[in-house]
Amino acid sequence: MVREVEGAAVSLGVKLQLLEVASIDPPEKIDQAFAAMVRERAQAVLGLQGAHFFKERRRIAELSLAHRLPGVFELADYVEAGCLIAYAPNLHDIYKHAARYADQILKGATPADLPVEQPRRFELVMNQRTSKTLRLTVPPELLARADRVID
Q1: pLDDT of 37
Q2: What domains can be seen in the chain, in order of their start residue?
Q3: What is the DSSP string of the chain?
């Protein structure tokens, strides 16, 4: 994921500041990462996926708001916790496909013979309350494209 983000940053002419918080790090390391972002004058947060981030999503949302850093994340759960935006595969759809695969395997299909599939449906989720708190104007076109807007 990091290589993809680095490539995108280069192509967009955006300065990327990578801050690593490992799964073995205490939650306070997230606070330190936000402090570093503020020192370096970051303008936004791009959160990459990890179980340790997921369980701290409320902390991340609170830090984002406290430091006025809009964040883009990979799961709608972050937006529900108070982060600004998520664009990700629809997990419900993925789980339905996984159940179909499990059904085929249980009926005798060889897993290696089943096709590898990319997610079919993505969703854009926005937190309007967070955008107001951060004093951001979200373009109406973006709100209209959102699959879900949390007020």
Answers
A1: 94
A2: 2-90+121-150 (3.40.50.2300)
A3: -HHHHHHHHHHHT---------TTS-THHHHHHHHHHHHTT---EEPPP-HHHHTTHHHHHHHHHHTT--EEESSHHHHHHT-SEEEEE-HHHHHHHHHHHHHHHHTT--GGGSPP---S-EEEEEEHHHHHHTT----HHHHHH-SEEE-
